[in-house]
Amino acid sequence: CRAFIVLICASSPPTSAVTATPHIYNCRSPNMEDFTCWWHPLDNLTEGEEAAYVLTYSKEFCPDYVTAGPNSCHFDSSHTSVWKMYCMAVTAITARGNFTSQEHCLDVADIVQTEAPVNLAYTLTDAGGDEMGHNVQLSWTYPVPSHLKYGWITLVYELQYRRANEHDKWKAKQSLREPHVKLLGLPVGDYVIRVRCRSHNYGLWSKWSATLQMSIPSRVPAGKLLVLILVTGVGVVALLVIAFGVLPQSRRFKEYFLPQIPKPRIIGIDPLFLKKGNLEEVNRHFSNFHSYKPPSYSEEVWDEVSADR
Question: Where is the Fibronectin type-III domain (predicted)?
Answer without folding.
Answer: 116-219
